[in-house]
Amino acid sequence: MIPREYFDDEITVGTARGTLRHLRHSRFSIVRLPVGYGKTLIAVLTAVGIAKQNGGVVQIGVIAPQAKRLDKSFDEALESASAYFGVTFKRLLINGEETGTFAGLSRELSGAHLIDAKTSTVNQQRYARRKAIKAKAEEIAKTPTVFILDETHMTLRDSTGVTSKSFTALLNMVDNMGGQVKVVGLTATPFDKSVLDTIGYLVFNGNYNSREEFYTREVVDYKALKMQGLTHEDIELKLVGRDFKIRPNQFINLNRVISQAKQIIYSPKAPKNFHIPANQITTLKVPLSEEGLNRLDYLKQVASDDGFSSKTEERLEFIKAMTTDKAMIDLALRIIKSDKIKQPLFFYQFNAQRDALAEALDAENMPYLQVNGSSHSYFTDFDETLPVLVQYGSGATAFEAKLSNTSVYLGLPDSSINFDQSLGRNARRGQAMDVITNYILAPQGRTGRNVPQFTKQYTRIKNKMTQNMIFLANFETEWGTFENPTKTASKPS
C-alpha cells in the first residue's frame, strides 16, 4: 500500500483539483509537471474525484509504456486509493491487460482477432476494425470511464498515427452513444516540435476532425500551398523553421490555436517541497581510433561522390562509425569499472551501438542489464551493481533507476523529448545523492574537434529544447490559479 500521506500531499491534491477543472470543458487534459511531482498519484486522485461525481464508481483504463507496466506502480496506486477513499475502480482491460500499452490498444482496435489477416480483403479488415471499435465503445459507455495515459506524448502528438486515429474514433463513438469518458494524460515533455505537436492533441480532443482540417482552418493560404505542390514537410517548415522557431505570420490566428490548447495542457508552477538530484551534463571528448578516423575519411569520400542512396543512409553510416568506435567503447568500459560510479545507464538509439558495447562486455565476462524492445532484464534480473543498456525508444521514459548516479550517451537521439526524458531516469524524488552526472561522449576527428555530424545533432537537440521551453511558457500557470477548491470542481477527499 502507498502511504495515505502521499495522496494528501499539497501538490497531489491541488493538481488533481486543477485537472478536474480542466476536464469540465474538455474530455482530455494533459498534466505537465517535471520529474518527481508524483504524476501517477495525481492521475489516480483525479479519478477518485470523478468517481465521487458518479456514485463512487468509475471505470479505469490505464495505458503506459511497457517499462511502467512492469513496475506495477499504477496497480499499487489504484488499490491504495480505492481503500483510502472508499471508491470502486472497475478496471477496463486493454487488449486483455489491466495496464495496457498503446501498441496493445492499437491491436485490439484493429479487429485483427476477428478475421484471418492472411486471407482477408481490405474491406473485411475495415469492417473488422469498425466492429472492434464499436464493441469497445459499448463496453466503455456502460460506466463512466477515465483513461490514464502515461507518457502521452509518445503517441497522441501524431494525429495521423494508427493508434491515435483509432483511439479518437473510439472516444467519438462513446460520445455518440451518450457515454461519459475523460482522458488524463501525463508527461513532462508534451512537445518535440512545439506548436506542431498541439495539432495531435487538438484533434484527439475533438477541436478538429483531422490534421487536414487544422491546416485548412489555421494555415495562411493552405489550399494555394497545396496547389503549388508543397509537401507536408514543406508546410511544416513554413510554420516552424529549421531553427525551430515558430513563424506566427503563417498562421491565420496563432493565439486561437494556443488558446484552445490551454484548455487541454495544464502546466502549474507547483511548489517544490521535496529533494531531487540535479543533472550535471558533462561532455567527454573522445579522440577516435585510427581505424575510426579512416572509416570517417572513407565515408566523407563516398558522400562527396554521391555514393549514398539517401541522406538517411549517409547519416546512419556516420553515426555508426562515430559511436561504435573502439575508443568510445573503451571509455564506456572505464566508466563501468570506476568505483565512484553506481549502476551507469548507457543510452543508445541503434542496435549497432548496443551490440558494440555488449560484445566488449561479453569479452570481459562482465554482466549487464537491458531495457529495449527485446529485453527488459532490468525488471526481471535486477542487480544494483550492473550497468544498464537502455534504448531510447524503450527506456528514455517510464522507468526508474534510483540507485544509479550516472548516465552515458553512446549516441544522441533524434527526438529532443527522448533526451530530455532520459535526464529523469536516475534523477528521482527521494534519492539521497545531490547530483546525477550525464556524460555525453563527443567523438573527435583528426583536427581534434568534434566530428561535424555530432556537433550538428547536439546543436539541433539543444535548440529544440530551448524553443520547446519557450512555447511551453504559454501554458504555465501560477500555483493557486486552478488548484484552490471551487464550487464547480469536486475536491477529491
Main attributes of the structure:
globular; 22 helices; 6-stranded parallel beta sheet; alpha/beta; 14 strands; 493 residues
How would you sum up this structure, described in words?
The chain is of the alpha/beta class and 493 residues long. Helices cover 46% and strands 15% of the residues. It contains 22 helices and 14 strands. The chain has helices at 4-7, 10-22, 39-52, 66-71, 73-85, 102-110, 122-141, 153-156, 162-176, 195-205, 211-218, 222-227, 232-239, 254-262, 290-304, 311-323, 326-337, 351-363, 377-380, 392-395, 416-422, 452-472, and strands at 28-32, 57-63, 88-91, 99-100, 145-150, 181-187, 265-269, 278-287, 345-348, 369-371, 388-391, 406-409, 435-444, 476-478. The strands form two sheets. Strands 1, 2, 3, 4, 5, 6, 7 and 14 form an eight-stranded parallel beta sheet that branches. A six-stranded parallel beta sheet has the order 8-13-12-9-11-10. The relative contact order is 0.13. The model is unreliable at 487-491 (pLDDT under 50).
Name the overall outline: globular
Enumerate how many helices there are, as a single number.
22
Find the structural class using helix and strand composition: alpha/beta
Classify the helix fraction into a percent range.
Answer: 40-55%
Give me the Rg, rounded. 24 Å
Summarize the biggest pleated sheet.
Answer: 8 strands, parallel
- Number-wise, the strands total 14
Distance between the termini: 18 Å
Q: What amount of the residues lies in strands?
A: 15-25%
* Mean pLDDT rating: 93
| Contiguous uncertain segments of 5+ residues | 487-491
